[in-house]
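Subject: design request, 315 residues
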């Protein structure tokens, strides 16, 4: 069976700012926290499913709401970057886990809590990983905010108003016979969205790496998905070696594949090299994204992304 996304080419389409409030929070395990956002303006938010990403702007301690130049139009990024970093809203990119229209407008976002353990899992407190940075060291501002979020807290969201938008990366081209999906805990929300989106019977080989066995989640799908969970606390191997060894030993389906890989940048690079060089994947059929990097803090990565975006805009 051939699996393909809509044939319309990927393109950047209109986005809007949405004023939202925290509705509730729920701990999913030692590493992950789900925050549900609500607000009437979300009726205009239209996600493309799969690995749909949005930007969240979080307030600094002491602020009632994040300061974001929502009236700057297409120049919002330039205006935001010109603001004092100690005052402007803390900008982070996250994946939409689920959007609901009824009984009210709600949006779920799953946060990986870097450096913040589950009170019921104190033994894991020193080894939780971050969606944006290395798995060691103090919690970053986004993780700290998420861990302390309470109903009513205000957050500004920047997201699409049309389903076919540039914030969706999982796009199997026509002629795809099966898909390979690989990610760590930072990619878990995106993988969950992809699996829910895949058409019935789609053949999928999935590898998911998490710190602890308690981080394993149920992932609803109508696809023919073979999911392998890689639990780091059960192995002495380096995270990259653990992931690579499992994929390298796997018997892959026949036919034309499409691969989507996300997570720690070094692991992603190694897995992509394996698929292209040793497995013969067409490099144009491998989508790979480094969500974070072992040797960088989340603030360093954000600054790199901000500088890179500014350089692109000035080119």
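Subject: RE: design request

Done. Sequence follows.
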């Amino acid at each position: 069976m051939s699996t393909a996304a809509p044939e319309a080419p990927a393109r950047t389409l209109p986005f809007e700012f949405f004023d939202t409030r925290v509705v509730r929070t729920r701990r999913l395990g030692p590493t992950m926290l789900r925050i549900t956002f609500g607000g009437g303006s979300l009726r205009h938010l239209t996600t493309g499913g799969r690995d749909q990403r949005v930007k969240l702007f979080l307030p600094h301690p002491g602020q009632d709401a994040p300061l974001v130049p929502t009236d700057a139009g297409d120049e919002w990024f330039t205006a935001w970057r010109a603001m004092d970093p100690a005052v402007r809203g803390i900008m982070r990119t996250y994946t939409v886990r689920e959007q609901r229209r009824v009984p009210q407008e709600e949006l779920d976002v799953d946060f990986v809590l870097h450096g913040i353990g589950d009170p019921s899992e104190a033994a894991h407190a020193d080894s939780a990983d971050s969606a944006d940075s290395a798995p060691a060291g103090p919690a970053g501002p986004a993780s700290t905010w998420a861990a302390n979020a309470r109903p009513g807290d205000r957050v500004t969201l920047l997201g699409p108003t049309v389903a076919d938008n540039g914030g969706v990366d999982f796009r199997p081209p026509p002629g795809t016979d099966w898909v390979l999906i690989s990610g760590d805990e930072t990619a878990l929300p995106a993988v969950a969205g992809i699996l829910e989106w895949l058409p019935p019977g789609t053949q999928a080989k999935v590898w998911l790496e998490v710190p602890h066995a308690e981080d394993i989640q149920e992932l609803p799908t109508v696809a023919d998905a073979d999911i392998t969970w890689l639990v780091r606390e059960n192995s002495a191997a380096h995270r990259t070696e653990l992931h690579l060894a499992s994929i390298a030993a796997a018997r892959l389906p026949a036919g034309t594949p499409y691969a989507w890989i996300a997570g720690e940048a070094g692991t992603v690079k190694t897995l992509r090299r394996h698929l292209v060089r040793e497995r013969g994947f067409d490099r144009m059929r491998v989508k790979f994204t480094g969500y974070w990097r072992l040797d960088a803090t989340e603030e360093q990565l954000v600054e790199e992304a901000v500088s890179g975006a500014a350089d692109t805009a000035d080119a």
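Confidence is low (pLDDT under 50) at residues 6-13, 119-136.
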